[in-house]
Amino acid sequence: MDGVATGNVVGGHLGTIAWSVGTGLLDLDAAILFLEAPRAVGLGHVDRQLTQLIRSGSLHGLRGVALGRFPGFEDYTDRDWTVLDVGHGDEPLFLALGPLAELDAAAGTLTVGPAVS
User: Fold this and answer.
1) 61 vs 83: CA distance, rounded Å
2) 103 strand-pairing partners
3) Taking a C-beta distance cutoff of 8 angstroms, is the pair 34, 97 a contact?
4) Which of 35, 70, 38, 40 is nearest to 53 (CA)?
5) CB pairs under 8 A, 24+ apart, for 22-31?
6) Short-list 75, 61, 3, 76, CA closest to 31
7) Nearest to residue 48, comparing CAs of 13, 72, 18, 74?
8) For the chain, which domains are there?
9) pTM, to two decimals
10) How far is C-alpha 109 from the geometric centre of its chain's CA atoms?
């Protein structure tokens, strides 16, 4: 898919985000959702957590999704998607949550503004 989205970066560990459904802790309206997670029990587990977010309506108003590391899925290929080298795994890199960011689907980039001003 092509397109550019701008919004505040929110998210983190997929399981934690999915488990927070109904608690009112996360507002995804007009946001770019960042997701990452270690491979715990397989692709079905990831599918169930994403389905929970979709069916709960939690993703309504979302502007984009950026995927970070999903260790254990390195050899899995689907539609030539790429992931950011951020999140769980050896020598983890970090992503500031909260700043305004631009997600460019065609370029495969996420440009995040400063965490503080």
Assistant:
1) 22
2) 5, 110
3) yes
4) 35
5) 22/56, 26/58, 28/58, 28/59, 28/60, 28/61, 28/62, 29/60, 29/61, 29/62, 30/61, 30/63, 31/7, 31/61, 31/62, 31/63
6) 61
7) 18
8) 4-20+28-112 (3.50.30.60)
9) 0.83
10) 13
> Of 109, 103, 117, 89, which is closest to residue 13 (Cα–Cα)?
89
Euclidean distance between CA atoms 104 and 15, whole angstroms? 25
Q: What is the pLDDT of residue 28?
A: 85
- Rounded CA-CA distance 58/40 in Å is 23
Dihedral sign computed on CA atoms, order 30, 78, 52, 46: negative
114 pLDDT band, cuts 50/70/90, is very high
Average confidence score pLDDT of the chain: 84
CA distances from 61 to 8, 27, 111 (A): 12, 10, 20
User: And the tokens for 88?
Assistant: 């769980």
Distances (CA, A) of 10 to 1, 18, 77, 108: 21, 13, 25, 18
Give the whole-angstrom CA distance, residue 27 versus residue 30: 9
CB contact at 8 A, 21 and 57:
no
